[in-house]
What does this fold into?
Amino acid sequence: GVVLLLIGITNLATWLAKLFTLPIVRGIQLGLGLLLVREGVRLMLGAKSNLVLAGGAGLPAWSIALGGAAVLALFQSSRRFPAALVLLVAGVALGVLARWGKLPALAWGPLPIEILHPRLAEFWRVLPLLVVPQFALTFGNSIVATENTAQILYGAQARRVTVRGLSLSIGVVNLVSGMIQGSPLCHGSGGVTAHYQFGARTPRSSYIIGAVCVLLGLFGKTAVGFLGLIPLAVLGVFLVYVGVQHAAYLRDIVKRAPLLLIAICVGVVSLLTTNLMWGFLVGFFLQGILLVVDKTRTKTARAANP
It folds into this structure.
């Protein structure tokens, strides 16, 4: 939180963003998309995703996933009934049937807020172990790629979504969350794609999402039980769909071979290592090689044509 807040206040974030060139950003988006697809397929086909309904009838995960994909396809163009909402309701209905008689109890239960008083020694200890390794991932995906994704999907509406603004918002939120012993929070380019593709394209969508999150928070731990009603195979369908859409941002550099190669390398390395940071480092290295090659060609051309 402190680091992101500082680079936002000083506008250092804008300068750092220049290191994330277009092929690196597209590679990060591709890598995240591939990771989402892989996890989605695992949820759609895993044995733990099978359901047994109250009457004893079994539903294999693949059949639930197939039905979920059909729902998305049928309602994809519907404005009256958003595909994501229909699939979510259908998934919860299946979850209720599978856990009939064992539904989680609902109880008022927001957790008490406890203020944390961090010490400077703790900060210096976590800086090399946690902050530095996480920074490239957070800055690349949660800030630079998020800004780019928002501009692609929302155009002029995303004018306030800047690397500086995103750095400031993540910094402030994490400072507050850390003080009350909450979990780290960040933006995410994949989340932007998910919201847009499933119909969240106006301010009202954000209000609704925020209200639902606040409502769940008021019920504390008991809310987790209700979220568990959504079948894993249904979540898998969501992940695969969003992953494919997110990876598809690659299409604007398909005809630019050097940039495409860098992006694919970033994406594949991210997938194989399950870590976007390694993908970024590979992309940064390849981008440097490309710049050297371009400069060498330019000098050679000038020498040949004085």
Summary: The chain has a mean pLDDT of 84. The longest strand covers residues 51-52. Residues 2-304 form one domain.
